[in-house]
Amino acid sequence: MKDIVIIGAGIIGSFLAYDLSQYQLDIVLLEKNKDVGCGATKANSAIVHSGHDPKEGTLKAKLNVLGNRMYEDICKTFNCHYEKIGAYVLACGSEEEEVLKTLALQAKHREIPFELHDYLTILQHEPNCSDKVTQGLYLPSTAIITPWEVAISLTENAMLRGCKVHLETEVVNIEKITAGYCVHTSSGKIETRCVINCAGIYADHIAKMINPESSISIQPRRGEYFVLDHTKEPVVHHILFPVPSNKGKGVLLVPTIHKNVLLGPTSDFIDEKDDVSTTKTGLDYVKSHVHQLVKDVPMHQVIRTFSGNRPVGNTKDFIIEEDSDFSCFFNVAAIESPGIASAPAISQYVIDELVSKRLCLQKKTILPDILKRPCALSEMTYEKRQNIIKEDSRYGHIICRCETISEGEIIEAIHRPLPALTVGAIKRRLRPGMGRCQGGFCEPLIIQILAKELNINENEVTVEETGSNVLVSKR
Amino acid sequence: MRKHELVIIGAGAAGLSCALASYHAGIKDILILEKEEDAGGILNQCIHTGFGLHTFKEELSGPAYAQRCIDLLSKTSVQIQCSTMVLSVTKEKQLVCSSSQYGLETIQAKAIVFATGCRERSRGAIQIPGSRPAGVLTAGAAQRYLNLDGWMCGKKVIILGSGDIGLIMARRMTLEGAKVVAVAELMPYSNGLPRNIKQCLDDFDIPLYLSHTIVKIEGKDRVSGVVLSQVDEHLQPISGSEKHFDVDTVLLSVGLIPENTLLEQAGAQLHPKTRGPVVDERCMTSLDGIFACGNSLHVHDLVDFVFAEGQRAGYAAAEYLKKTYMDCNVIMVRPEGNISYVLPQKLHTSDTKLLYRVKTPMKNAELILMSKDKVLKRVRKVSLIPSIMEEIAVTKELLQDCDEELIVEVKPWKN
Ligand SMILES: Cc1cc2nc3c(=O)[nH]c(=O)nc-3n(C[C@H](O)[C@H](O)[C@H](O)COP(=O)(O)OP(=O)(O)OC[C@H]3O[C@@H](n4cnc5c(N)ncnc54)[C@H](O)[C@@H]3O)c2cc1C
Ligand SMILES: Cc1cc2nc3c(=O)[nH]c(=O)nc-3n(C[C@H](O)[C@H](O)[C@H](O)COP(=O)(O)OP(=O)(O)OC[C@H]3O[C@@H](n4cnc5c(N)ncnc54)[C@H](O)[C@@H]3O)c2cc1C
Question: What is the pLDDT of residue B327?
Answer without folding.
Answer: 65
